[in-house]
Design goal:
about 60% helix; 3 strands; about 110 residues
Length: about 110
């Protein structure tokens, strides 16, 4: 499992990418999808996920839809058009960051 410090800077990018791929998702579904796709290496906590979702919503990148399922209320999150644009930008930025980190950590010797 990775440290909280590493995840903190990548959480929004992870959430945006998942929503871009899956349309709408609810919080627990997001945590389980990340856990499954990373074979348990990344486990999002509710304490980290929900503040991030609320921040993305406040920034106009997500919209929510509340659905009654039996006696439970489930809140689904999905991207706005602005969120779709931001997702592409965040993914490009993160790919560039990874490339830079690989260069720094594995410099080629001449």
């Amino acid at each position: 499992m990775y440290s909280k410090e590493l995840l903190k800077g990548t959480l929004q990018t992870i959430v945006l990418k998942l929503l871009a791929e899956n349309g709408r998702m609810y919080g627990y579904e997001i945590t389980q999808k990340v856990k499954e796709q990373t074979e348990g290496k990344i486990q999002l906590t509710e304490g980290a996920l929900y503040p991030s979702l609320h921040k993305l919503e406040a920034e106009g990148l997500l919209v929510t839809e509340t659905v009654n399922i039996g006696k439970r209320i489930r809140k689904y999150y999905s991207l706005t058009p602005k969120g779709n644009v931001q997702t592409a930008s965040k993914l490009e930025e993160f790919a560039s960051f990874i490339s830079t980190m690989q260069f720094l950590l594995n410099p080629k010797t001449s």
